[in-house]
């Protein structure tokens, strides 16, 4: 059972996040140290340097041969259920769109496995809980973040491609602008004249951009290194590890600092409004664990592994999801609010979920 000492340890892990957030907010709002036009550059620093190095450093030190593959399978099934539900919603609902499909996928699948997850799981289930949440984080970095980046690049490249094609071109892509989404972002939807040639050309552009994205290949290189290092039992050279650590250790702090800068530029603290805030909380704390429960039951997980799988799916939103949303200009207000509010309310929610699962046991 969780004691007050365990709760304190989780709070100790969470409070520094809000210190970094407050410093970023105050740097723009109160002290005028950083000008509004400089904020995008700081987010780019996080996106292109500290975040990929943080991901590589973490993944490279994991032993992939010791993973719980039924647990990984349950996670994959849960994510596929979410993708199917969101695809049906985007296709059948008048409020659905590709842009909101991407944002909803991020809100419901990507969680804060390390800063919040590790101390919380250690308090709840000991080392087994830590091991499983770390394994979940590896898959999140290498698979789900890559899929998110693929969808975002497809959206960005499709918009750029449609604006540069001409009627006489053999790979012409005819598009028409839709009304705008709830944040006023212009949505571009393909018309019926899309040809097969234009699609494959667009996919080529997307993959080339993705291949140049350090967040993509950092995770892939990290998992390859982890396999090789654990197979032949060698360690990373200290000069190489030191060069990576000097930037990767700043990953979480600079991400929260960048979020504070972003908040300072908004008119309201809850920039996306209460409706979208509730929507984000619903996806994170209801849809995420519910679909994970379905995935876990489908592969036959039982006991503490089952309970850990459900609780880790209810962890708050991943901080890096905001950084990515800000870099691609897609619903950053929703993601920032999700991270800030979600992290604040996650502790009582997760403890309550833990108590319910233990009672049912």
TrEMBL record:
Localisation: Membrane
InterPro entries with a match to the protein in the record: Auxin_eff_plant, Auxin_Efflux_Carrier, Mem_transp_PIN-like
GO cellular component: endoplasmic reticulum; plasma membrane
Chain ranges passing through the membrane: 6-25, 45-62, 68-90, 97-120, 132-152, 217-234, 246-265, 277-299, 332-357
Superkingdom as given in the UniProt entry: Eukaryota
Record's keyword annotation contains NAD: no
GO biological process: auxin polar transport; auxin-activated signaling pathway
Entry keywords, A to Z: Auxin signaling pathway, Membrane, Transmembrane, Transmembrane helix, Transport
One MF term in the entry's GO annotations: auxin efflux transmembrane transporter activity
Pfam family, one: Mem_trans
Membrane topology annotation: Multi-pass membrane protein
Primary localization class, coarse: membrane
Family: Belongs to the auxin efflux carrier (TC 2.A.69.1) family.
Protein function: May act as a component of the auxin efflux carrier.
Protein name, UniProt field: Auxin efflux carrier component
Annotated source species: Nyssa sinensis
Taxonomic classification: Eukaryota, Viridiplantae, Streptophyta, Embryophyta, Tracheophyta
């Amino acid at each position: 059972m969780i004691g007050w000492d365990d709760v304190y340890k989780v709070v100790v892990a969470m409070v520094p996040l809000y210190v970094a957030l407050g410093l970023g907010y105050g740097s723009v709002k109160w002290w005028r140290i950083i000008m509004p036009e400089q904020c995008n550059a700081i987010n780019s620093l996080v996106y292109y340097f500290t975040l990929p190095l943080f991901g590589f450093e973490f993944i490279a030190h994991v032993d992939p041969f010791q993973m719980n593959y039924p647990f990984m399978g349950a996670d994959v099934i849960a994510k596929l259920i979410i993708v199917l539900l969101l695809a049906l919603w985007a296709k059948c609902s008048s409020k659905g769109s590709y842009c909101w499909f991407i944002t909803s996928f991020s809100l419901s699948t990507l969680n804060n496995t390390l800063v919040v997850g590790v101390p919380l799981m250690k308090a709840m289930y000991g080392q087994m809980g830590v091991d499983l949440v770390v394994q979940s984080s590896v898959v999140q970095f290498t698979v789900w973040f890559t899929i998110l980046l693929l969808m975002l690049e497809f959206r960005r490249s499709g918009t750029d491609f449609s604006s540069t094609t001409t009627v006489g071109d053999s790979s012409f892509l005819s598009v028409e602008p839709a009304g705008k989404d709830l944040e006023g972002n212009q949505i571009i939807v393909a018309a019926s004249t899309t040809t097969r040639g234009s699609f494959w050309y667009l996919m080529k552009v997307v993959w080339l951009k993705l291949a140049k994205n350090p967040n993509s290949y950092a995770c892939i290189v990290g998992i390859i290194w982890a396999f090789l290092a654990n197979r032949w039992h060698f360690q990373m050279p200290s000069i190489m590890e030191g060069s990576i650590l000097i930037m990767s250790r700043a990953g979480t702090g600079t991400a929260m600092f960048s979020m504070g800068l972003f908040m300072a530029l908004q008119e309201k603290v809850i920039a996306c409004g209460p409706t979208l805030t509730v929507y984000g909380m619903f996806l994170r704390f209801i849809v995420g664990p519910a679909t994970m429960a379905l995935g876990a039951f489908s592969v036959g997980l039982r006991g503490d592994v089952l309970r850990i799988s459900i609780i880790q799916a209810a962890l708050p939103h991943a901080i890096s999801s905001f950084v990515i949303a800000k870099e691609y200009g897609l619903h950053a207000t929703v993601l920032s609010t999700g991270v800030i509010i979600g992290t604040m309310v996650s502790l009582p929610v997760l403890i309550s979920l833990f108590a319910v699962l233990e009672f049912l046991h």
